[in-house]
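ok so heres the complex, two chains, lmk if somethin looks off
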Amino acid sequence: MSLYEYTYIARQDIQPQQVDAITAEFAKIIDDNGGKVAKTESWGLRTLAYRIKKYKKGHYVHLNLDAPHAAIAELERNARLHEDVIRYMTIRVEEFEEGDSVVLRSNSRDSRPPRDNNRFGNDDRPKFGKKPEGDKS
Amino acid sequence: MSTDRPSSGGAGGGQQRRPFFRRRKTCPFSGSHAQTIDYKDVRMLSRYVSERGKIVPSRITAVSAKKQRELSKAIKRARNLALISYVNP
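and the predicted structre for the whole thing:
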């Protein structure tokens, strides 16, 4: 069957046990419709890049599914109806990546490089910056 | 007193410092052991997003056209999952 990466975000003010309950519920839907959950990953409570339905944070859960279309359609229908799930996304993939996804791997490395964020930040703003020192020779 | 050294890669010298050095021509995604484009890899994606949150054109980041298409699709997916913001104030 075809492979899917399914990610959903649950709203922030529910308990982690409830998030696991939702994941179990979704897994049951997939199993009932002839698919199987290859891997389940919880990225925990993360800050959203922008507010979704007035929530600033969300519980992220990432699933690797090996399922027919019917199971995925049923899963998405339930996610749409579920009021705790504020966003979900299903991506068809060719093959699963083995091991943890980047999200879990990246916060296992604690040393974060300093954000050098003026690389090309100034190309879409009019140049007000000071003249580079080299000109005062 | 800035001596006029030959500007290697535009590092020194008096002329306007180009935001990007001319010598970086290789596409970081093609080639044998290049990194894969993944919509979950926020750190890698944010290198190709400007400070305002816009996707940087491939003429600046020297990414090949095919990989730039994949990259922009991954960035849009990451934006949808609120891993990356659409605009930064």
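quick notes: Chain A touches chain B through 30 residues (CB under 8 Å). thats all i got rn
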